[in-house]
Amino acid sequence: MTTAAAESVLDCVGNTPIVTLRRLFPEPDVEVLAKLELMNPGGSMKDRSARFIVEGGLSDGTLRAGSTLIESSSGNFGVALAMAARVHDLRFTCVVDPKTTRANLALLRHLGADVDMVDDTDAHGGYLGSRLRRVRELLAERPGAVWINQYANERNPQAFYHGIGAELVDQLPAAPTVLFGPVSTTGSLLGSARRLRERFPDLRVTAVDAAGSVIFGGRPGSASCPGSAPAAFRNCAGPTRSTTSCTSPTPTPRSPAANCCRRRGSSRADRAAR
Ligand SMILES: Cc1ncc(COP(=O)(O)O)c(C=O)c1O
After folding, report:
1. What is the pLDDT of residues 64-114, one digit of tens each?
2. How far is the CA of 46 from the centre of ligand 1 (A)?
3. How far is ligand 1, taken at its centre, from the CA of residue 139, in Å?
4. Which residue out of 13, 179, 188, 208 has the highest number of ligand 1 atoms within 8 Å of its CB and is therefore the one to mutate?
5. Residue 181 gets which letter from DSSP?
6. Prediction pTM value
7. 225 and 241 share a domain?
8. 184 lines ligand 1 (CB under 6 A)
């Protein structure tokens, strides 16, 4: 039997499987399903937004073969963009910082990206401000270069509306109660939630990030793992923080995620996420 071969690794992005996490959540009244985004060719869901943004730019003429892409990323999005740039004959400069893992630096270089390392911290003691300043310098030095800017790029949430969201609508065996997702730009959770709520209007959405993140308005702290909460599931031990409605107020033997699946949310954070 022969099967059609994909034209490139980019054609292998998406259509990831879902798996029931019975050993992690053995409680009989809870079913937790995980979508295995690590099975994308670049190793994360960021492959979806990188592909969607690059191919969207090529089809509307904002990008063409030989164009230079610039992006600030300390992790997965950079790797995904390097892969998309390589397949489509684009140049890519990735602005990184000293927290970028050696593995990601090696991947970026092997994929042909130009790696631009900042080493000075910004006014908050982090690197984000320094990376963005370096992006602006590079844009000024290279006329015609395109800043992907995943934080403001509308194709970012759209990639997940058409990707993870649409796939889950077909894959889920029953209406889900809660969608949990890691957040950084929030594009993936926003796009997935929009698509899922068209089919399941009562769906609750809970955003998760590492403790020390300022996304939920908390005090800044130092995060030792690059990327986002999926890293917590990949042996990056450390506390994670979800929207307050979902974490148990006192420690219980049940996991916060399992508690969340049981309780109907009515807190302000729940309503805000709707
Ligand atoms: C593997 C992975 N998944 C999810 C996220 C969060 O995605 P988003 O930027 O869409 O909020 C990140 C962010 O860096 C990530 O690295």
Report:
1. 999 999 999 988 999 999 999 999 999 999 999 999 999 999 999 999 999
2. 7
3. 25
4. 188
5. E
6. 0.82
7. yes
8. yes
Considering just the CA atoms, what is the radius of gyration of the chain in Å?
19
* In-domain check, residue 1: no
**165 in ligand 1 pocket by Cβ < 6 Å?**
no
Are 196 and 118 in the same domain? no
- The verdict on 138 and 228 lying in the same domain is no
Give a yes or no: residue 4 inside a domain: no
Atom of ligand 1 nearest to the CA of 44: 1
Question: Ligand 1, atom 16: nearest CA belongs to which residue?
Answer: 227
Q: Does residue 186 line the site of ligand 1, with CB under 6 A? A: yes
Q: Cα separation of 51 and 69, whole Å? A: 13
Q: In the 8-state DSSP scheme, what is residue 161?
A: I
Number of domains in the chain: 2
- What's the gap in Å between 95 CA and the centre of ligand 1? 17
| pLDDT tens sequence across 212-238 | 777 887 666 655 555 443 222 222 222
28 CA from centroid of ligand 1 (Å) = 30
Q: Is the CB of 182 under 6 A from ligand 1?
A: yes
By residue range, what is the domain housing residue 140?
A: 46-147
What secondary structure does DSSP assign to 28-81, as a single string? Answer: TT---EEE-GGGSTTSSTHHHHHHHHHHHHHHHTS--TT-EEEEE-SSHHHHHH
**Among 147, 172, 193, where does a domain finish?**
147
Distance CA(191)–CA(66), nearest Å, equals 30
Same domain, 263 and 162: yes
